[in-house]
Amino acid sequence: MKIIMLAINNLHAQIEDGVEILKGINLQINPGEVHAIMGPNGAGKSTLSSVIAGKEDYEVTEGEILFRGENIVEDAPEERAHKGVFMSFQYPVEIPGVSVTNFIKAALNETRKANGLEDMPAKEMLALIRENSEKLGIKRDFLSRSLNEGFSGGEKKRNEIFQMMMLNPKLAILDETDSGLDIDALRIVADGVNSFRNENNAVLLITHYQRLLDYIQPDFVHVLAGGKIIKTGDKNLALELEERGYDWLLN
Ligand SMILES: Nc1ncnc2c1ncn2[C@@H]1O[C@H](COP(=O)(O)OP(=O)(O)OP(=O)(O)O)[C@@H](O)[C@H]1O
Ligand SMILES: [Mg+2]
After folding, report:
1. Which among 242, 87, 238, 88 is positioned nearest to 153, based on CA atoms?
2. Residue 29 falls within a domain, yes or no?
3. Which protein residues touch ligand 1 with a CB less than 6 Å away?
4. How far is the CA of 110 from the centre of ligand 1 (A)?
5. Residue 233 domain-assigned?
6. Which of 19, 45, 79, 223 has its CA 20 to 30 A from that of 123?
7. Ligand 1 mean position to 48 CA, how many Å?
8. Pocket test for ligand 1, best of 12, 38, 47, 222 (most atoms within 8 A of CB)
9. Cα distances (angstroms) measured from residue 105 to each of 122, 125, 163, 216
């Protein structure tokens, strides 16, 4: 039997002052699937991704998040990452003096260590870096730059997708909040996701751009509004939203 990648059942979450943001989310993602979440500003999309990744600003008050059958609600963000949950903007920090390459090497070996594996042999690491950077059109001098220092929006995006491909998570959550994504950045995300996706992993993609879904074919599109998933469909739902907006779904 195939194990369910992510099962979110009746998830409620609030911010510290008791304001409830997520009001009963139900979502099931199987291996091999790409799910897109769309919805109006302030709906709770980024909150949902943060709560799955375990960001500490939010408190889960009800419900469960089963990752491969195991409730991860009490797990620290690093534990979730080690189990195979990746979220973009997980490492948004600027680290002067730590290069893109050294950072990803450390992150990858830390994950291996948490899973009882030895460091990846240097030669293998180098080959993997080469393979993934070539796929994404990342140049050698970019790899030796300090992490996120002075990165443009597109460079940050490229680096995030590079991190995802290097860490090879089971579940990748990509929150494309940045309204400044240009066509190139959309392509970077799309190409990265398409070369990453396979039968054994899954992607949760948050986007406002129907256009991105022309490049990344989602299996399901969900509309999140007011802290709940109010509609689920296939990729045609995204086209319909593009045409009609969200008003027709909201009362
Ligand atoms: N840490 C926080 N502190 C206070 N309010 C928060 C916090 N996180 C989220 N919120 C509020 O929760 C609501 C949902 O925010 P969220 O960022 O999840 O929306 P979103 O669907 O991602 O919107 P957008 O499309 O604009 O990115 C908003 O009203 C937001 O102000
Ligand atoms: Mg958001």
Report:
1. 88
2. yes
3. 15, 21, 39, 41-47, 57, 177
4. 31
5. yes
6. 79
7. 9
8. 47
9. 9, 8, 10, 28
Domain that holds residue 216: 6-250
Ligand 1 centroid – CA 132 distance (Å) = 33
Q: What is the CATH number of the domain that holds 39?
A: 3.40.50.300
Residues paired with residue 103 on neighbouring β-strands, in sequence order: none
Q: Which of 11, 14, 21, 88 has the most ligand 1 atoms within 8 A of CB, as the residue to mutate?
A: 21
Confidence bin at 180 (pLDDT 50/70/90): low
Place of tokens 């009362």: 251
C-alpha–C-alpha distance, residues 192 and 182, integer Å: 15
**241 CB-side CA count, 13 A:** 28
Nearest ligand (C-alpha, residue 55): 1
| pLDDT one-digit tens code per residue, 95-150 | 778 899 999 999 999 999 999 999 999 999 999 999 999 988 888 898 988 887 88
The secondary structure of the chain in percent helix, strand, coil, rounded to multiples of 5, reads 40, 25, 35
Residue ID of nearest Cα to ligand 1 atom 7: 15
Q: Where are the beta strands (DSSP E) in 134-219?
A: 146-147, 171-175, 202-206
Work out the average pLDDT over 197-201. Answer: 96
Q: How far is the CA of 207 from the centre of ligand 2 (A)?
A: 9
Q: Is the model more confident about 157 or about 129?
A: 129
Nearest Cα residue to atom 6 of ligand 1: 15
Judge whether 1 lies within some domain. Answer: no
> Given the structure tokens 């990748």, which residue do they identify?
172
Token duo for residue 22 = 């997520």
